[in-house]
C-alpha cells in the first residue's frame, strides 16, 4: 500500500511565509469544493489533511455561520486554532465560537453537535504544543501575526 505523500508536503509548504498570502485563492476554492461535494470534502481533504466545517451562531446577529478549518486531532476531540493565516486580527469565527457553548461540526459527511471549550492556562500550553507538532506552520503564522495570542478551542462531540 502506497502512503499519501501530500500531508507531509503540505506541512512543509505551510511553513513558507508566501503561502499565507494564498488565502484569497484557497478560501473560495474551499467553498467551491465543499459545495460540489455536498460538504464532504474541501481543499485540506484533497491534500490529505484533517478538516471540519464548523457552524456556530453569530454572536451579534444569531445567524448561523459556517467555516472550514484544519483541525488537530486530540483523541476524540477536534482542536482548532484561530491563526487567521498569520493576520494580526483574530478570525471572526473565533469570536463567534468564544461566545458559544455549543456548535455543529461536519466531519466525514456526518453532522453533529459539539461542546466548545476555549483553552486556558496549562491546557492552552498543552494544546499549542500538540498543534505545533502536528502543523509546524502555526509557529510561522504566530510570528507573522505580530505574536498575537491565538485563540485555541477544543470541540467535543455531544453524545445523544
UniProtKB/TrEMBL annotation:
Which top-rank group of organisms is this from?
A: Bacteria
Which InterPro entries does the record cross-reference, listed alphabetically? F420H2_quin_Rdtase, Split_barrel_FMN-bd
Give me the reactions it catalyses: oxidized coenzyme F420-(gamma-L-Glu)(n) + a quinol + H(+) = reduced coenzyme F420-(gamma-L-Glu)(n) + a quinone
Identify the GO cellular component terms for this protein. Answer: plasma membrane
GO molecular function list: coenzyme F420 binding; oxidoreductase activity
Residue stretches in coiled coil:
none
A Pfam family in this protein? F420H2_quin_red
Question: Family, per the entry?
Answer: Belongs to the F420H(2)-dependent quinone reductase family.
PANTHER family tied to this protein: F420H(2)-DEPENDENT QUINONE REDUCTASE RV1261C
What protein name applies here?
Nitroreductase family deazaflavin-dependent oxidoreductase
